[in-house]
Amino acid sequence: MSVLLKTRVTAIGPEVADLAEGGVVILFADGSPPELAEVSVLHSAETGPSDDAPTKGASIAIGDVSAEITAVGPAAWNKVREIGHVVINFNGAAEAERPGEICAAVVDAQALVGALKTGAVIVVAAA
Questions:
Q1: Residue 30: C-alpha distances to residues 7, 10, 13, 83, 102 (Å)
Q2: pLDDT digits over 30-77, tens only?
Q3: Which of 66, 73, 103, 119, CA to CA, is 20 to 30 A from 91?
């Protein structure tokens, strides 16, 4: 397993839990504009992001919640590398609807909400 990104949650915006209940998590690196921070999980990378983007079959783990990546939008990993931003949609879609989106297998919404806390580690690993 090759780690493509390991990052630590530094802050949780006030609207994050509502989005996570719907299976959506928005990551943004520390220093994001305040209006984006409200809906974002702010983070600070510890390893990566790698030059290589994850592919279908890679994994994403947020704390104890993990899922297989099912689709990666064409611009998603570039945004991660440039500004630490990506939308993760735990909808199991075979194709990303938006270019900046990573889709992953459906997870338990309450477990996802519970995993999103300051200090949690997020890891994206190659298949």
A1: 11, 7, 12, 9, 20
A2: 988 888 999 999 999 999 999 999 999 999 999 999 999 999 999 999
A3: 119
